[in-house]
Amino acid sequence: MKKTVFLLIIALVLGVLGTAFAAEAPFSDVPANHWSYNAITNLSKAGLIEGYSDGTFGGHKIVSRYEMAIIIARIMTKLDKADDDQKAIVGKLSKEFANELKSLNVNTSSIEPRVAALEQKAHVWFGGESRFRFFGDHPGQPGYKSLRGSDQYDFRQRFKFYGDINENITWNAYLETNPVKFGNKETLTVDVANVTMKNYWGLDSIRFGRSPVDAFGSGLFGKPTNSDGVMIKKKIGTADFKGYVGNVKTGNNADGSTTAISTANTVTSGELGFKIDDSLTVKTSYYWSDIYTDQGAMNIASGSFNQSNGYDLAFLKKTGKLFVLGEYMGTQLSGAKGIPSNPKGWYLQISNGVPTFLLYPIANIVDVKKPGTDAWVVSYRSIDPGTLPAGIGGFSMMTSQSYTSAISGSGWGNYNIYTKATDNVNAWYFAYQKVLAKNFLISFDYQIINIKNKAVTSGLIGNALDKCYLMKLEYFY
């Protein structure tokens, strides 16, 4: 191993050493203008390298494995000051030079337990997300009040755990408090818990466990979390294939229940993605759903359907400094009552932010790691009643809030916060995001939501549902 090569590795670990050393040349053959001068000086001041008896470093020579083991042993005495990435590097080096470490006249019995503990820690990572939101709205129907008091605030805390079993198998899990209104007691739930295997059984990857419904279009049909199932990915020629089958958890049911809406509750979907060129990507998908859905999950006075299936076309196009994201969805309903059996939905989104094949607000339009950056997004959506089965919809209750109980018997109670943003609506969406500090984000959202098909409603005066606004603060770590 060349000395310059291992210096590049050890330089990554210099944070372990406390690198505030005086710029005093330790070796006569390392000039101050040499690219490795600072790294060599720091290593020498830390006592990790000693050079040769004639006062030279000898950078042109080949370092032995024994010499490398001595350096690793010295670094391991200062691991308490290292971060996780630095510890991971030292752990791999110590494993590679395990035999040499044992042969040294050092206390290897004390080193080995630290190596074992280090290797175990390097396979698990922890992160999280803290979110605070302020809501406001202006109902479009007479007799209904805007949100007030503590109902205008909520918060959510996520705890995220990641790990790898080996180089091809990883896992992750989220624990979260459901969005809690101020003054209410929070409940901790398992939001995500899954394992992903790469390069098994002829597939590029297979993921199983609790995850988002993310294998269909760009998010019009989707669910951010809390769905139990399996997703596979496979490159087929120039196309990227994704397939999903799972059971949709519906803890946010319109009726307040925390169990599945129906007995089956299964969604199956397949998707092919094509990168046409550097500026255009398209996806085509098909889905089947066994989810029974009634007026409790649609913006209608009464009605239902037993099953549904449909197709989806989506694209992401770069035009100058702007990105255009669009999606069209056609659905066929089985056992439809009170609504047309072939609903459709579409949306179009324009943004100057980070390009991603997920609609806002599912995906942020800024990079939260870049302080001072900002971006805006504008979208319009038009969705027939029944286009989406219950429990699935990218524009979910998280994007709007309102009071729902009827005041004067007008029937407004059927048009609830769980579905009004994602079913039987024509709606404008405006948003702006800015990264105030690294991993600290502020968002401002505003929506104008109107009923699309008033013929299947009752008791409404005009088409206006609500005008909703939102301010959100998020910290990711």
Task: Describe the fold and architecture.
This protein is mainly beta and 477 residues long. Helices cover 13% and strands 41% of the residues. The protein has six helices and 19 strands. The chain has helices spanning 3-11, 37-45, 65-76, 84-96, 98-103, 108-121; strands at 124-139, 153-166, 169-177, 180-181, 188-200, 203-213, 223-236, 239-248, 266-277, 280-289, 293-294, 304-305, 307-319, 322-334, 344-351, 374-383, 425-437, 440-451, 464-476. The strands form two sheets. It has a 16-stranded antiparallel beta barrel with strand order 1-2-3-5-6-7-8-9-10-13-14-15-16-17-18-19. A two-stranded antiparallel sheet has the order 11-12. α4 (84-96) packs across α6.
* Helix-strand category: mainly beta
Please outline the major beta sheet.
Answer: 16 strands, antiparallel, barrel
User: What's the mean pLDDT score?
Assistant: 78
Tell how many strands the DSSP assignment holds. Answer: 19
Number of domains: 2
Give the low-confidence spans.
19-23, 251-262, 406-414
Give helix % range. Answer: 10-25%
The helix/strand series, from N terminus to C terminus, equals: HHHHHHEEEEEEEEEEEEEEEEEEE
Strand % is 35-45%
- Oligomeric state of shown chains: single chain
Q: What is the helix tally?
A: 6
Strands ordered across the widest β-sheet:
1-2-3-5-6-7-8-9-10-13-14-15-16-17-18-19
- The CA-CA distance between the termini, in Å, is 37 Å
Radius of gyration over all CA atoms, rounded:
28 Å
Q: Quick one: overall form?
A: elongated
